[in-house]
Design a protein that fits this description.
Blueprint: H1 2-14, E1 39-41, E2 44-47, E3 54-57, E4 60-63, E5 69-71, E6 76-84, E7 88-96, E8 99-109, E9 116-117, E10 122-126, E11 136-143, E12 146-148, H2 151-154, H3 184-229, H4 235-257, H5 259-278, H6 282-290, H7 292-311, H8 315-320, H9 322-364, H10 373-404, E13 413-419, H11 429-441, E14 457-458, E15 463-464, H12 465-474, H13 487-505, H14 508-517, H15 525-532, E16 537-543, H16 545-572
Antiparallel strand pairs: 1-4, 2-3, 4-11, 5-10, 6-7, 6-9, 7-8, 8-10, 8-11, 11-12, 13-16, 14-15
Helix pairs in contact: 1-5, 3-4, 3-9, 5-6, 5-10, 6-7, 7-9, 9-10, 9-16, 10-16, 11-13, 13-14, 14-15
């Protein structure tokens, strides 16, 4: 009996894991990239590589290859993890004391908002998203919201000053939560049930204490009366009996009033075991456990590049690549369905755990009386069962994340540079737009800010001033209030208009004629020849079907593993205790 008490005490002590706080960043930060540093653009004023104008660069650009890991420069809490205008996929970390670091232009993110990270943790994989001309890591340090020289922090010296400069881009976060918003009601429901169960536990404790003490009194009275009326009534035996009862009832009373703490300790203990078993940290396991939407978000990030790949296709391209499109869609469905299923199962196990913790206290209240002591064993067995089930689901989620961890976007595709096919066989509006841009302003030093020779047009595509506002409206864009027109807006407006014209005329030949002359009536074969002989190049991305197949198989295997393991857990711990008690080997877990 004493050994069983010690086992429970060990669980209580071993499970008490604290939360590691974020260290302030006044000490030296580590470099966010690996290997020898290649600075492609330093902190300070520069000629912007895209806009061609003088702008203040608010960080340091480190040349970095696609898919290389980006590390947290210091410990802190993630405040932004998603697409941000200009920065592409961005991670922002709050280090306390009004210090923040930003990591931009990533290909893929591995963290979520609210997650605590330690110095050196991998938070993203490098890429060239947003306003970027090649793969690199944009590293930025902000003090009181203003950018400061990152070298002052990377070198370990105190910051040179709090004064900042105007930044390249304003941070305007895109709603990346659209991937997993449908899981937020589940998260809110689990949080609400946890809150209700916590409050309900206090109410039940106040009401059950009278039953608990009454059964304790009855048990002492019956056993004490039996000893007084029995033959063995020596003082030593009675003293030992009273001492053992004081220890036993004191222990039960402690458990009764700290039942909620015991439940949380058991939960943390088993979740931590799951984190250790999969090589993950406790914070990651806890985030997955307490927020089902987080696991769905992770799945969405894995299939995000596939979504983007499909988004580059249109009309004819979809028909040419129909088998690939179908496989991509199946992969997206399988991966998202798997992460969604595991998220739902974790939410259900989480709700079951709190409900079990609440109602098992009723059974534990009968423990003081010897005749009903098995009810307490059942209560503890049920609580342990629910925590083990939580651990199994957490391990399943962590194993899935570990299995897909090496699947970075650069591994999804084979990339090659190819010439645009002769004869006007353009495969996308991007290819056609590149050819038009080459013909219109290809020889100019700054094509996006070049007026036409006749004074009627402007920019890389020589769009007429009279058409600019109406074309912007057609593309759903608010025109720039004054000159110059932003390059990215020119690209969007021109490609949208070209797509509209292609849908109207059905071939690129007529689109080129209309673009140059305004109508197909004004036939200009020479302009068409310039377009098809522009010598434009395109980057061809071919998705690797073997990688997609691997992702599908891993997702399906994880789903089956989680489902079957839950069945085994329910069968093993069903009813009043372990399954093998039915064979007469043991009669439950008794106190």
């Amino acid at each position: 009996m004493l050994i069983k008490w010690l086992i429970i005490l060990v669980l209580m002590v071993a499970g008490d894991f604290g939360t590691v706080g974020a260290a302030p960043a006044y000490h030296s930060m580590m470099n966010p990239v690996e290997g020898e540093l290649e600075v492609t653009s330093d902190f300070g004023w520069r000629t912007h590589p895209i806009y061609g104008t003088q702008k203040f660069h608010s960080g340091i650009d480190f040349g970095y290859d696609y898919g290389m890991p980006v590390h947290a420069a210091s410990s802190g809490t993630v405040t932004t993890a998603g697409w941000v205008s200009g920065y592409g996929y961005l991670v922002a970390i709050d280090h306390g004391s009004s210090i923040e670091t930003l990591y931009g232009h990533n290909e893929m993110l591995t963290v979520t908002v609210g997650q605590t990270v330690q110095m050196g943790d991998v938070i993203a994989y490098a890429g060239s998203t947003g306003n970027s001309t090649g793969p690199h890591c944009h590293f930025e340090v902000r003090l009181n919201g203003e950018p400061v020289n990152p070298w002052d922090w990377l070198s370990g010296t105190p910051p040179s000053g709090a004064g900042g400069m105007m930044m390249d881009e304003d941070i305007v976060a895109v709603n990346y939560d659209a991937y997993y918003d449908f899981c937020k009601p589940i998260r809110e429901m689990t949080e609400k049930i946890a809150e209700v169960c916590t409050k309900g536990l206090r109410i039940i404790q106040d009401n059950l204490r009278w039953l608990f003490w009454a059964l304790m009194t009855i048990d002492i009275a019956i056993q004490g009366l039996g000893m007084l009326l029995g033959e063995d009534r020596n003082a030593i035996y009675i003293s030992r009996w009273l001492a053992s009862k004081c220890i036993f009832y004191g222990f039960l009373t402690y458990l009764f009033w700290h039942w909620g703490d015991l439940a949380n300790i058991l939960r943390d203990y088993f979740v931590t075991m799951g984190a250790f078993a999969t090589g993950n940290d406790y914070a990651t396991a806890g985030k997955i456990l307490s927020d089902p939407a987080a696991i769905v978000e992770i799945g969405a990030r894995y299939v995000g590049p596939i979504f983007e790949y499909l988004g580059t296709m249109w009309g004819i391209s979809i028909m040419f690549h129909l088998p690939t499109v179908i496989i991509c869609l199946l992969t997206i469905i399988c991966v998202l369905a798997c992460f969604f299923y595991i998220g739902i199962m974790i939410a259900m196990a989480y709700i079951e755990f709190y409900c079990t913790a609440l109602f098992s206290l009723l059974g534990f209240s009968f423990t003081p009386f010897q005749g009903t002591r098995s009810f307490g064993a059942t209560a503890i067995t049920g609580l342990v069962m629910s925590t083990i089930k939580l651990m199994v689901m957490t391990v399943t989620a962590l194993l899935l994340v570990v299995a897909l961890k090496d699947s970075v976007p650069k591994d999804y595709f084979d990339t090659s540079v190819q010439s645009v096919a002769a004869g006007g066989n353009f495969q996308s509006v991007e290819e056609f737009a590149a050819a038009i841009r080459q013909v219109e302003t290809g020889g100019c030093e700054d094509p996006y800010h070049t007026p036409s020779a006749d004074g009627y047009g402007y920019g890389a595509y020589q769009i007429s001033y009279s058409n600019w506002e109406s074309w912007c409206a057609e593309a759903g864009i608010t025109p720039a209030p004054d000159m110059p027109w932003p390059p990215e807006v020119q690209d969007v407006v021109a490609k949208h208009k070209m797509q509209v014209l292609y849908e109207q005329y059905g071939n690129w030949h007529d689109v080129a004629i209309v673009w140059n002359a305004g109508s197909v009536v004004s036939w200009d074969e020479a302009y068409w020849q310039k377009v098809i002989n522009s010598g434009g190049m395109r980057i061809e991305k071919t998705i690797k079907l073997t990688v997609l197949l691997k992702m599908m198989l891993v997702a399906l295997a994880a789903m089956i593993f989680g489902h079957e393991d839950c069945k085994v857990i329910m069968e093993l711990f069903a009813g009043y205790g372990f399954r093998f008690k039915r064979q007469g080997m043991i009669r439950g877990f008794r106190l």
